[in-house]
Specification:
The structure is a single chain. The protein is about 80% helix and about 0% strand. With about 110 residues, it is mostly helical. It has one domain. The longest helix has 28 residues. The protein is elongated. The N and C termini lie far apart (about 65 Å). The mean pLDDT is about 90.
């Protein structure tokens, strides 16, 4: 039974990895591609590692540490890359209506 649960979790994780790759291909700009890839791959990695924990219970602590590392580093690295892309003025998609960072920067400049 644990092998079935592990297989289902690994398969679900692979599905999320597939959706991350599909999002990287279909999204219109670097910011939405990064968001699609980061969220789906984080969940995909977590599910695959949880499935491996069912297959190899002795590895559970190591896999939990890896899941923690993925959950901490994926969002932080995605945020840093998005800010770097914004700072070198990579344009947003044409349909983007709100640029909250630009508005915040303009408000800070007007207060000084």
């Amino acid at each position: 039974m644990t092998e079935v649960i592990g297989s289902i979790l690994v398969l679900l994780g692979a599905g999320f990895h597939f959706s991350a790759g599909l999002g990287m291909l279909r999204m219109p700009d670097v910011y939405t591609r990064m968001q699609a890839g980061t969220k789906a791959s984080t969940l995909g990695n977590t599910l695959v590692l949880a499935g491996l924990a069912f297959y190899h219970p002795g590895w559970s602590l190591k896999l939990l540490i890896i899941v923690y590392f993925v959950l901490m580093t994926n969002p932080i690295s995605s945020h840093a890359l998005a800010r770097a892309a914004y700072s070198i003025r990579i344009p947003l998609a044409g349909g983007t209506g709100i640029d909250a960072l630009r508005d915040k920067q303009q408000n800070l400049r007007s207060k000084t």
